[in-house]
Amino acid sequence: MSDNDDVWIANCGNNTVSLYPGGDPAAAVNLGSLGLEQPFDVVDNGEHIFVSGIQNNTVAVLNRDGSPIDGSPLTDPGFQNPMGLATAPDGSVWVANSGTTTLPCPERPADAEGAPSVSLISADGTTVAGPFTGGGVTRPWGIATDGAGNVWAANFADKRLSAFCGTDPSTCPRGLSTGDGISPDDTGYAFDGLTRNTGVAIDPSGNVWVANNWETIPVQTNPGAHQIVAFVGAATPLPVAPFSG
């Protein structure tokens, strides 16, 4: 949802994006011809709307009325099956490049050759930096930024969470630059309780919440993957609006 109450919906099944102006379903419009195949995630950075296209490795950048900006959709060698999107405090947008995933999944395609990474799009939607491949990233799906603008990616593979230095390196461990991995490059933040993670969120206390999506083995006697996992206090807390009344 945008700050003007517009609701944006990525329709993976028919390569379109729906817009409910002001949140009104009666006024809904469907936007095609955006150059997206399997649109997956939508974010609003306060200036533009960004939509990832998994199957054709693109990110569309739209004006608030749904029209694409010049140069949209963005194509970049680093965009390899892009999925989750997240905005940072400075308006830049981070992209989770799964490297392999198309929908429906869950299995990695036998001929998959993509490289998992994250990319960074400027706030005006015109330039792309990266890909950034550190932090133990393996198959990022969901992505979020914390109160310092640092980046957290939920990996669908290998039971790990990845963290990256954001656009303000002064908030990162000494010596790191934008896009460098904060989590270990060989393992990420690994935990056996993680299973095919698809979503990640940061709360106002700096806790990082990760969604377990489904079982690695479809039928098993001791199933998991119906939970969320919290990395308590791992991230910079998000700002909270002051209470009124």
From TrEMBL:
Coiled-coil positions: none
GO molecular function ontology, one term from the record: zinc ion binding
Protein name: NHL repeat-containing protein
Organism: Ilumatobacter fluminis
InterPro entries referenced in this protein's UniProt entry, alphabetically: 6-blade_b-propeller_TolB-like (IPR011042), TRIM-NHL_E3_ligases (IPR050952)
